[in-house]
Write a structure and sequence with these properties.
This protein has 10 helices and 9 strands. It has 262 residues and is of the alpha/beta class. It starts with a strand and ends with a helix. It binds adenosine-5'-triphosphate and magnesium ion (MG). The site of adenosine-5'-triphosphate has 12 residues, from strand 2 and helix 1.
Length: 262
């Protein structure tokens, strides 16, 4: 059974904004999938549908055979880290255990030893064991994102989602963070779906790529199949391949296709 299954998923906002339009695909255990596509393509909507924050208008989504809920099955890493800045890296990672325990129970009971061990293990996975007592507010952007990954790992999720987890970072920090995320996924055989804007970084870390545009899957394939032509089609459309529009997203997408030829 696939971990993720989407069948003809359609999401319409406000009656006329079609964010997802007939999206169907499965993701198997342990796959590291990167979702690519221009701004407004529907990437965040897709991830929100997978973690149950958004309900599809029509179609079916299952995670290990069950509808996604707000429970602990899905861990999420966000573009902005949403850490509690005054708390240590360790305390922030530990809050990942709250969603598993439920907020009420967590108020009434102390963290279990197993949770504490899970927090330290997760910080070790993201290379922050030495910094575990450092205040999150004093950490670099890359370190904060790694704490965010650790927090998601403490949830012990069946599926790890990340929506543009490195878009606020410089290329080196972005690669570091993606490297740790990949390592975490491999260590734990964790199925991962991450959206990325940087195609060159996506190429380095993804095993499988799903390209969406206008809410539709335009591409689903391996690194070898993700050619420069495919990337150009995805971001610029067939008729305008190579033409640079003057928005920021286009510049982001343009750099990688050049970089890929290095
Ligand atoms: N809560 C919402 N209400 C109404 N429309 C929305 C909502 N969220 C997204 N949309 C619209 O749905 C479409 C897809 O948006 P989405 O945020 O999923 O794109 P995206 O691929 O994540 O874009 P970006 O790369 O800019 O983050 C867009 O047209 C967007 O304006
Ligand atoms: Mg988005």
């Amino acid at each position: 059974m696939p971990v993720v299954s989407l069948s003809d998923v359609r999401k319409v906002y406000g009656g006329d904004t079609v964010a997802l339009d007939g999206v169907s695909f499965d993701v198997d255990q342990g796959e590291f999938v990167v979702v690519l596509g221009p701004s407004g393509a529907g990437k965040s909507t897709l991830l929100r549908v997978l973690n149950g924050l958004t309900t599809p208008t029509t179609g079916e989504v299952t995670i290990n055979g069950h509808p996604p809920g707000a429970g602990s099955d899905v861990g999420m890493v966000f573009q902005m880290h949403y850490l509690i800045e005054s708390m240590s890296a360790y305390r922030n990672a530990l809050t990942g255990a709250l969603s598993r325990a439920g907020w009420l129970r967590s108020l009434l009971t102390a963290y279990r030893t197993a949770d504490k061990e899970a927090a330290l293990r997760a910080l070790d996975t993201v290379g922050l064991l030495e910094e575990s007592e450092q205040r999150a507010g004093s950490m670099s952007g890359g370190q904060k994102q790694r704490v965010g990954i650790a927090r998601a790992l403490v949830q012990d999720p069946e599926l790890l989602l990340a929506d543009e987890p490195v878009s606020s970072l410089d290329p080196k920090a972005a690669r570091d963070v993606m490297g740790y995320m990949k390592r975490a996924a491999e260590e734990r055989d964790l199925t991962t779906v991450a959206s990325l804007h940087q195609v060159n970084i996506a190429r380095e870390f993804g095993d499988r790529f799903i390209g969406i545009r206008g809410g539709q899957v335009m591409f689903d394939g391996s690194r070898e199949e993700l050619s420069m032509d495919v990337v150009d089609d995805l971001y610029y459309g067939k008729d305008t391949a190579g033409a640079y529009a003057d928005d920021e997203q286009t510049v982001d997408a343009a750099a990688p296709s050049g970089g890929a030829a290095e």
